[in-house]
Amino acid sequence: MNRYEVHTIKDAYTLYELKESSTSSRVLVCPERGGIVISCMLHGTELFYLDRTTFENPDANIRGGNPVLFPICGPVKDSVYEWNGRAYRMNQHGVARVNPWEVVSVSTEGEASVTLRLRANESTREAYPFDFELLFTYALVGGELHIRQTYRNAGKNGSMPFYAGFHPYFAIEGSKNIPYETDATKYVDYNDNVEKPYSGRIDLEPLVESVCLLDAKRSEIAFPVRDGASVRMRYDDSFKYVVIWSVKDRPFVCVEPWMAQPLEMNRREELVMVEPGEERRANLTISLEKDEQQ
Questions:
Q1: How far apart are CA 124 and CA 126, in angstroms?
Q2: Is 96 exposed, middle or buried (0-12, 13-18, 19+ CB in 10 A)?
Q3: Helix (H) or strand (E) run with residue 56 in it
Q4: DSSP type of residue 101
Q5: Domain locations along the chain
C-alpha cells in the first residue's frame, strides 16, 4: 500500500483528501470554496477549527480552515482604493477566497499533494484590475502541511501590486492567554491602535480586534493549542507580519502570516510588485509538536 494517498470526497462540495498513513495525517482541500484547506490533521491531532454552517453556505465567508488572502490582507479604507486614477471597491481579504479554483494536478510521488490554480476573471477584475495567475500546491509529507505558492503577473502592461497572506483558524482548548514563541519585540494593538512591547504572550480573551506582531526577524512562530501539543508555522521572509485574532466564546485562535499590514493598498509603502510575465514564490509550512511525554 502506498504511503501517500489522494482521494476525492463528496461533501457539501468536492474535497480532495491528502493522506499519509505512516504519520496518521490527513488534509482536506476544497477548491470550489476559495482553494481552502478545511481540515489539517497531523499525527492524529486535528489542528483547524471549522464552522460548517459558513462552509456549507456558498454566500458566507468561511469561518474556519485556512482561507487564502489575495491580493490584500485585511480591508482597504472604506472598501475603496485607487489605482491609475480609477477607484475600485474590494471586500476584506480580497478575491481569492470567494472564487472557485481549478485542480491542475495531484501526486502521490514522495508526498500527497494537490495543485490548484486561480486565474483572473471578469468578477475579479471589477475589484482588482490585473491579470493574475495563482498556483498553490498543498503537500502533505513527513507529517507536515506545506503550501507552495506562486503569484504570477499574467498581464502584459504594468506592474501587479499585492500583499498576500493566510488566515488559519487553529482549534484550541482552554484559555486564549497564550505564549507565542517569536523574536518579535513589539506589536500594534488594533483595538486602540497603540504600539506596545511584546512580553511573551498575548491575552485575546478581552480583545475584539486583532493585534499584529511587528518586528520579528525569524520567519516562524509557535504556540500551544492544548496540553502537550503546539503548532509551529515556518514561512519565508515575504511574510513580514503575523496577525493574531479570535472571537469571544469561540474555541479558536487565528495566527495569520501576512505580507503587509491592513490598508497597504491605500498606503503603498510595502506593496509586493510583480512585473509582467514574472512571478513571486512563497512557502508556508504547518507542523505539530508534541511533548515527549505525550
A1: 5
A2: buried
A3: helix 52-56
A4: P
A5: 4-290
CA distance 43 to 160: 39
CA distances from 128 to 4, 125, 206, 229 (A): 38, 5, 35, 40
pTM (2 decimals)? 0.96
Rounded Cα–Cα distance for residues 212 and 278 (Å): 30
Beta strands in 142-278 (DSSP E): 144-153, 160-162, 165-166, 169-171, 177-179, 186-189, 194-197, 201-203, 211-213, 220-226, 229-235, 241-245, 252-258, 272-274
How far is the C-alpha of 45 from the C-alpha of 162, rounded, in Å?
34
In angstroms, rounded to a whole number, what is the distance separating the alpha carbons of residues 108 and 22?
14
Cα R_g (the chain), whole angstroms: 19
* Per-residue pLDDT reduced to its tens digit, 37-74: 999 999 999 999 999 999 999 999 999 999 999 999 99
Give every CB contact of residue 156 below 8 A, 6+ residues apart in sequence: 131, 276, 277
CATH code that applies to domain 4-290: 2.70.98.10
Distances (CA, A) of 279 to 71, 94, 148, 161, 274: 14, 19, 13, 12, 6
